[in-house]
Design a protein that fits this description.
Number of helices: 1
Low-confidence stretches: 1-22, 252-258
Largest sheet: 12 strands, antiparallel, barrel
Mean pLDDT: 88
Shape: globular
Oligomer: single chain
Helix content: under 10%
Strand content: over 45%
Structural class: mainly beta
Strand order of the largest sheet: 1-3-4-6-7-8-9-12-13-16-17-18
Distance between the termini: 52 Å
Order of helices and strands: HEEEEEEEEEEEEEEEEEE
Length: 309
Protein backbone atom coordinates (compact mmCIF):
# COMPACT_ATOMS: atom_id res chain seq x y z
CA UNK A 1 0.00 0.00 0.00
CA UNK A 2 1.39 3.42 -0.93
CA UNK A 3 2.25 5.86 1.84
CA UNK A 4 -0.41 8.38 0.82
CA UNK A 5 -3.06 5.68 1.18
CA UNK A 6 -1.67 4.78 4.60
CA UNK A 7 -1.84 8.46 5.59
CA UNK A 8 -5.52 8.55 4.64
CA UNK A 9 -6.20 5.20 6.23
CA UNK A 10 -4.59 5.62 9.62
CA UNK A 11 -4.85 8.02 12.49
CA UNK A 12 -2.39 9.32 14.97
CA UNK A 13 -1.66 7.71 18.29
CA UNK A 14 -3.97 8.57 21.18
CA UNK A 15 -3.37 11.94 22.75
CA UNK A 16 -2.90 10.33 26.13
CA UNK A 17 -2.50 6.63 25.61
CA UNK A 18 -1.08 6.53 22.11
CA UNK A 19 -3.31 3.60 21.46
CA UNK A 20 -4.99 3.33 18.10
CA UNK A 21 -5.81 4.56 14.65
CA UNK A 22 -9.39 4.00 13.51
CA UNK A 23 -9.83 7.44 11.98
CA UNK A 24 -7.77 10.42 10.87
CA UNK A 25 -6.69 12.18 14.06
CA UNK A 26 -5.82 10.98 17.53
CA UNK A 27 -7.75 8.94 20.03
CA UNK A 28 -8.41 11.72 22.50
CA UNK A 29 -9.46 9.42 25.36
CA UNK A 30 -6.99 7.13 27.18
CA UNK A 31 -8.84 3.84 26.69
CA UNK A 32 -8.64 1.67 29.78
CA UNK A 33 -7.71 4.52 32.09
CA UNK A 34 -10.71 4.13 34.42
CA UNK A 35 -11.36 0.93 36.35
CA UNK A 36 -11.36 0.74 40.19
CA UNK A 37 -14.25 2.85 41.53
CA UNK A 38 -14.97 4.19 38.01
CA UNK A 39 -18.50 5.22 39.02
CA UNK A 40 -17.75 6.17 42.63
CA UNK A 41 -16.54 9.74 42.89
CA UNK A 42 -14.85 10.53 46.22
CA UNK A 43 -16.29 12.82 48.93
CA UNK A 44 -16.23 16.61 48.40
CA UNK A 45 -12.66 17.87 48.10
CA UNK A 46 -9.75 18.34 45.70
CA UNK A 47 -7.93 15.42 44.08
CA UNK A 48 -4.84 14.94 41.91
CA UNK A 49 -4.54 11.98 39.55
CA UNK A 50 -1.56 10.94 37.47
CA UNK A 51 -1.73 8.42 34.62
CA UNK A 52 1.70 7.23 33.49
CA UNK A 53 2.20 4.48 30.97
CA UNK A 54 3.67 2.88 27.87
CA UNK A 55 2.03 1.55 24.71
CA UNK A 56 3.58 -0.64 22.02
CA UNK A 57 2.14 -2.13 18.83
CA UNK A 58 4.19 -3.81 16.10
CA UNK A 59 1.59 -3.62 13.36
CA UNK A 60 -1.44 -1.70 12.18
CA UNK A 61 -4.48 -3.87 11.39
CA UNK A 62 -6.63 -3.31 8.30
CA UNK A 63 -10.42 -3.61 8.00
CA UNK A 64 -10.15 -7.42 7.93
CA UNK A 65 -7.89 -7.54 10.97
CA UNK A 66 -4.80 -8.39 8.89
CA UNK A 67 -1.39 -6.90 9.65
CA UNK A 68 -0.07 -4.02 7.55
CA UNK A 69 3.68 -4.47 7.05
CA UNK A 70 6.24 -1.82 7.99
CA UNK A 71 3.95 -0.11 10.53
CA UNK A 72 4.24 0.31 14.28
CA UNK A 73 3.99 2.67 17.22
CA UNK A 74 5.53 3.11 20.66
CA UNK A 75 4.47 5.84 23.08
CA UNK A 76 5.20 7.02 26.61
CA UNK A 77 2.48 9.15 28.15
CA UNK A 78 1.87 11.08 31.37
CA UNK A 79 -1.52 12.67 31.98
CA UNK A 80 -2.10 15.08 34.87
CA UNK A 81 -5.69 15.35 36.12
CA UNK A 82 -7.42 17.62 38.63
CA UNK A 83 -10.83 16.71 40.07
CA UNK A 84 -12.93 18.95 42.34
CA UNK A 85 -15.99 17.49 44.04
CA UNK A 86 -18.26 20.11 45.64
CA UNK A 87 -21.00 20.08 48.27
CA UNK A 88 -23.41 21.62 45.76
CA UNK A 89 -26.33 19.32 44.95
CA UNK A 90 -27.74 18.87 41.42
CA UNK A 91 -30.59 16.37 40.95
CA UNK A 92 -29.71 14.89 44.32
CA UNK A 93 -26.06 14.28 43.46
CA UNK A 94 -22.79 16.10 44.11
CA UNK A 95 -21.60 18.49 41.42
CA UNK A 96 -17.97 18.00 40.35
CA UNK A 97 -15.61 19.16 37.59
CA UNK A 98 -12.30 17.97 36.18
CA UNK A 99 -9.53 18.62 33.64
CA UNK A 100 -6.79 16.44 32.11
CA UNK A 101 -3.52 17.71 30.62
CA UNK A 102 -1.63 14.96 28.70
CA UNK A 103 2.05 14.85 27.72
CA UNK A 104 3.20 12.35 25.07
CA UNK A 105 6.45 11.02 23.58
CA UNK A 106 5.83 8.75 20.60
CA UNK A 107 7.52 7.01 17.69
CA UNK A 108 5.38 6.11 14.68
CA UNK A 109 6.43 3.87 11.80
CA UNK A 110 4.60 4.11 8.47
CA UNK A 111 7.24 2.89 6.07
CA UNK A 112 9.86 4.94 7.92
CA UNK A 113 9.75 6.32 11.46
CA UNK A 114 9.30 9.72 13.09
CA UNK A 115 9.49 10.71 16.77
CA UNK A 116 7.60 13.59 18.36
CA UNK A 117 7.00 14.85 21.91
CA UNK A 118 4.64 17.44 23.35
CA UNK A 119 1.24 18.37 24.71
CA UNK A 120 -1.76 16.27 23.70
CA UNK A 121 -5.42 17.28 23.50
CA UNK A 122 -6.72 18.69 26.80
CA UNK A 123 -9.93 17.24 28.27
CA UNK A 124 -12.25 19.10 30.63
CA UNK A 125 -15.76 18.92 32.03
CA UNK A 126 -17.63 21.64 33.91
CA UNK A 127 -20.48 19.23 34.67
CA UNK A 128 -20.06 15.96 36.54
CA UNK A 129 -22.76 14.67 38.91
CA UNK A 130 -22.29 11.71 41.26
CA UNK A 131 -24.74 9.67 43.35
CA UNK A 132 -24.41 6.98 46.04
CA UNK A 133 -26.99 4.48 47.34
CA UNK A 134 -25.92 1.45 49.37
CA UNK A 135 -23.64 -0.78 47.31
CA UNK A 136 -24.28 1.29 44.18
CA UNK A 137 -22.41 4.38 43.02
CA UNK A 138 -22.87 6.14 39.68
CA UNK A 139 -21.96 9.34 37.87
CA UNK A 140 -22.88 11.24 34.70
CA UNK A 141 -20.81 13.85 32.88
CA UNK A 142 -20.27 15.73 29.66
CA UNK A 143 -16.59 15.81 28.64
CA UNK A 144 -15.16 18.25 26.11
CA UNK A 145 -11.96 17.56 24.13
CA UNK A 146 -9.98 20.56 22.85
CA UNK A 147 -7.55 20.32 19.87
CA UNK A 148 -4.50 21.57 21.78
CA UNK A 149 -2.06 18.86 20.68
CA UNK A 150 0.46 19.30 17.88
CA UNK A 151 -0.95 18.31 14.49
CA UNK A 152 1.02 17.93 11.24
CA UNK A 153 -1.34 17.88 8.28
CA UNK A 154 -0.35 15.25 5.75
CA UNK A 155 1.98 13.28 8.03
CA UNK A 156 0.40 11.43 10.99
CA UNK A 157 3.85 10.34 12.15
CA UNK A 158 4.52 13.91 13.34
CA UNK A 159 1.22 14.57 15.11
CA UNK A 160 -0.02 14.14 18.67
CA UNK A 161 -3.37 15.97 18.59
CA UNK A 162 -6.55 15.16 16.67
CA UNK A 163 -7.10 18.70 15.29
CA UNK A 164 -10.83 18.69 16.00
CA UNK A 165 -13.17 19.37 18.92
CA UNK A 166 -15.33 16.60 20.30
CA UNK A 167 -17.95 16.17 23.02
CA UNK A 168 -18.65 13.01 24.98
CA UNK A 169 -21.61 12.07 27.19
CA UNK A 170 -20.44 9.78 30.00
CA UNK A 171 -22.16 7.37 32.38
CA UNK A 172 -20.20 5.33 34.94
CA UNK A 173 -21.34 2.88 37.60
CA UNK A 174 -19.73 0.88 40.40
CA UNK A 175 -21.18 -1.97 42.46
CA UNK A 176 -19.13 -2.78 45.58
CA UNK A 177 -20.44 -5.23 48.19
CA UNK A 178 -19.49 -5.91 51.80
CA UNK A 179 -17.31 -8.88 50.81
CA UNK A 180 -15.10 -6.61 48.68
CA UNK A 181 -16.28 -7.69 45.22
CA UNK A 182 -16.39 -4.83 42.73
CA UNK A 183 -17.88 -4.45 39.26
CA UNK A 184 -17.24 -1.10 37.56
CA UNK A 185 -17.84 0.24 34.07
CA UNK A 186 -17.61 3.58 32.32
CA UNK A 187 -19.68 4.06 29.13
CA UNK A 188 -18.89 6.87 26.67
CA UNK A 189 -20.04 8.08 23.27
CA UNK A 190 -17.62 10.37 21.43
CA UNK A 191 -19.11 12.84 18.91
CA UNK A 192 -16.49 14.48 16.68
CA UNK A 193 -16.33 17.75 14.78
CA UNK A 194 -14.64 18.02 11.38
CA UNK A 195 -10.93 18.38 10.71
CA UNK A 196 -10.72 21.13 8.09
CA UNK A 197 -6.93 20.96 7.77
CA UNK A 198 -6.54 17.39 6.49
CA UNK A 199 -4.14 16.48 3.69
CA UNK A 200 -3.95 12.91 2.32
CA UNK A 201 -0.20 13.37 1.79
CA UNK A 202 2.42 16.10 2.37
CA UNK A 203 1.90 18.98 -0.07
CA UNK A 204 -1.57 17.86 -1.17
CA UNK A 205 -4.50 20.32 -1.08
CA UNK A 206 -6.46 20.56 2.16
CA UNK A 207 -9.63 18.51 2.48
CA UNK A 208 -12.37 18.20 5.11
CA UNK A 209 -12.16 14.95 7.08
CA UNK A 210 -14.94 13.83 9.42
CA UNK A 211 -14.00 10.92 11.68
CA UNK A 212 -16.80 8.56 12.71
CA UNK A 213 -18.37 8.72 16.16
CA UNK A 214 -17.38 6.02 18.67
CA UNK A 215 -18.87 4.05 21.50
CA UNK A 216 -16.27 2.97 24.03
CA UNK A 217 -16.20 1.59 27.54
CA UNK A 218 -13.73 0.79 30.34
CA UNK A 219 -14.50 -2.04 32.76
CA UNK A 220 -13.23 -3.87 35.84
CA UNK A 221 -14.12 -7.01 37.78
CA UNK A 222 -12.13 -7.19 41.00
CA UNK A 223 -11.90 -8.28 44.62
CA UNK A 224 -10.58 -6.20 47.48
CA UNK A 225 -8.55 -7.74 50.35
CA UNK A 226 -8.16 -5.01 52.93
CA UNK A 227 -5.99 -2.30 51.39
CA UNK A 228 -5.25 -4.43 48.30
CA UNK A 229 -7.35 -5.11 45.22
CA UNK A 230 -6.85 -7.66 42.42
CA UNK A 231 -8.88 -7.93 39.24
CA UNK A 232 -9.24 -7.87 35.47
CA UNK A 233 -9.68 -4.60 33.61
CA UNK A 234 -9.79 -3.46 30.02
CA UNK A 235 -11.77 -1.63 27.36
CA UNK A 236 -13.85 -2.01 24.22
CA UNK A 237 -13.98 0.48 21.34
CA UNK A 238 -16.44 0.39 18.44
CA UNK A 239 -16.76 3.08 15.77
CA UNK A 240 -20.46 3.52 14.98
CA UNK A 241 -20.51 5.90 11.98
CA UNK A 242 -18.45 6.15 8.81
CA UNK A 243 -15.39 8.27 8.19
CA UNK A 244 -16.07 10.89 5.50
CA UNK A 245 -13.79 12.87 3.21
CA UNK A 246 -15.30 16.10 1.86
CA UNK A 247 -18.72 14.76 2.85
CA UNK A 248 -18.36 11.39 1.09
CA UNK A 249 -17.96 8.06 2.87
CA UNK A 250 -14.53 6.59 2.24
CA UNK A 251 -14.79 4.21 -0.70
CA UNK A 252 -13.14 1.01 -1.86
CA UNK A 253 -10.62 3.11 -3.79
CA UNK A 254 -8.61 3.11 -0.56
CA UNK A 255 -8.39 -0.66 -0.50
CA UNK A 256 -9.00 -2.59 2.78
CA UNK A 257 -9.82 0.67 4.61
CA UNK A 258 -13.13 0.93 2.74
CA UNK A 259 -16.74 1.00 3.98
CA UNK A 260 -16.22 4.02 6.18
CA UNK A 261 -13.12 2.56 7.84
CA UNK A 262 -14.80 1.76 11.14
CA UNK A 263 -12.40 0.77 13.90
CA UNK A 264 -12.84 -1.78 16.67
CA UNK A 265 -10.69 -3.29 19.43
CA UNK A 266 -11.02 -5.19 22.70
CA UNK A 267 -8.49 -5.25 25.56
CA UNK A 268 -8.15 -7.14 28.85
CA UNK A 269 -5.48 -7.74 31.48
CA UNK A 270 -4.63 -7.92 35.19
CA UNK A 271 -4.97 -4.94 37.52
CA UNK A 272 -3.66 -4.47 41.08
CA UNK A 273 -4.54 -1.62 43.45
CA UNK A 274 -3.28 -0.51 46.86
CA UNK A 275 -4.87 2.15 49.09
CA UNK A 276 -2.82 3.79 51.83
CA UNK A 277 -4.15 4.77 55.24
CA UNK A 278 -4.09 8.42 54.10
CA UNK A 279 -6.44 7.65 51.19
CA UNK A 280 -3.88 7.66 48.35
CA UNK A 281 -4.55 4.94 45.79
CA UNK A 282 -1.91 3.29 43.57
CA UNK A 283 -2.89 1.16 40.56
CA UNK A 284 -0.77 -0.95 38.21
CA UNK A 285 -2.19 -2.76 35.20
CA UNK A 286 -1.40 -4.36 31.86
CA UNK A 287 -3.93 -4.52 29.01
CA UNK A 288 -3.54 -6.69 25.89
CA UNK A 289 -5.51 -5.76 22.76
CA UNK A 290 -7.14 -8.26 20.39
CA UNK A 291 -9.64 -8.30 17.52
CA UNK A 292 -8.43 -4.95 16.15
CA UNK A 293 -9.76 -3.65 12.85
CA UNK A 294 -8.54 -0.41 11.24
CA UNK A 295 -6.40 0.23 14.32
CA UNK A 296 -3.10 -0.71 15.86
CA UNK A 297 -3.18 -3.79 18.10
CA UNK A 298 -0.73 -3.92 20.97
CA UNK A 299 -0.11 -3.83 24.71
CA UNK A 300 -0.51 -1.04 27.27
CA UNK A 301 1.16 -0.79 30.67
CA UNK A 302 -0.29 1.66 33.22
CA UNK A 303 0.71 3.15 36.57
CA UNK A 304 -1.89 5.38 38.18
CA UNK A 305 -1.92 7.60 41.26
CA UNK A 306 -5.02 9.07 42.97
CA UNK A 307 -4.29 11.47 45.81
CA UNK A 308 -6.44 13.90 47.86
CA UNK A 309 -4.95 17.27 48.74
Amino acid sequence: MRLKHICVAVALTGAIAGSAWAKEGADQYPHGGENWFAGALPPPGDYFLNYFGYYNADNLRDGDGHKVDHTGVTAWFDALRYVKVTNTQILGGNWAMHAIVPLVHQKVTLGDSKTVSGLGDIVFSPLVISWHAGNWHWAAALDIYAPTGEYKSGDPRKSIGANYWSVEPVFAATWLNEAGWELSAKFMYNIKAKNKDFRPAPGAPKMEYESGDEFHMDYLLGKRFGQWGVGLSGYYVKQTTDDKLDGDTLSSALGPWSSGRKGEVFAIGPSVSYTTQAGTMLIGQWQHESGAENRFQGDKLWFRLIMPF
